[in-house]
Amino acid sequence: MSHTTAEALPLLPFFLPASGGQRYCLLHLPPPGRSARGGIVYVHPFAEELNKSRHVAAAQARAFAALGYSVLQIDLFGCGDSSGDFHDARWDIWHNDLHLACAWLAQRVDGPLTVWGLRLGALLALDFASRAPLPLARLLLWQPELDGRRSIDRFLRLRLAAGMLAGGAREAPGQARAALAKGKSVEVAGYLLAPALAHAIDGVSAAALLPAMPVYWLEYCAAGQAGAWSPPLLERQWRERGAAVHVASFGDGPFWHGGELLACPQLLDATRELCRDWLDEERPPP
Question: Is the pTM of this model over 0.90?
């Protein structure tokens, strides 16, 4: 690990012009005087999980930068500090945002380009990589959502849970799904979910995607269950179909949700170990 402290690493916040407004970005740069070994674009998770996980993603971005990579964190359209309302976000717009981010970084950094995603952002990264016009060196997936429909169903259950806690009239299971099917937007935990976005996510499944580049996959395993943990079935299916997949687990906790912000040193250490083959790669002379 580099001895450069995170505080000493250059950090550039900026707005990237894009369709429908601007996208807020944070660019983590390698230590001063060191040319970048490659670029990494981070794809954040869905809705409130973005806010819950931002501090862990930033810590990992700093770690990558200390090892010589330029890391671009982008808030997708309708998310975070970028232009647009969440209600107007669409899956294809997010694809365009990732293409914009990757193209922007590729123009400024020599070396391989990595896309790194968390949760639904990992599924978006997989979907993007399956049709990306730019060459990608690898994918890094943190706790990936593997089925879009299940992800939306899980999100809609937050609405049911909030209704039960409020003590009002209980919403019947499936009511939100029925509203979406009729073309009506649904409010979930302060986020107004548009039918077009929900239906697009419903149609994405990792099982239908075969990565054409190496995949590095980190999966949460609760404390005390490490001995019983086994790689996901999909990982084995991908390998049988010729994909290069590397899988490991971490035990810090599901930091993307919950009432308190979790530091995740195990996840950062596991990422460092899992990705050792490219993080430890000898840097060519400038």
Answer: yes
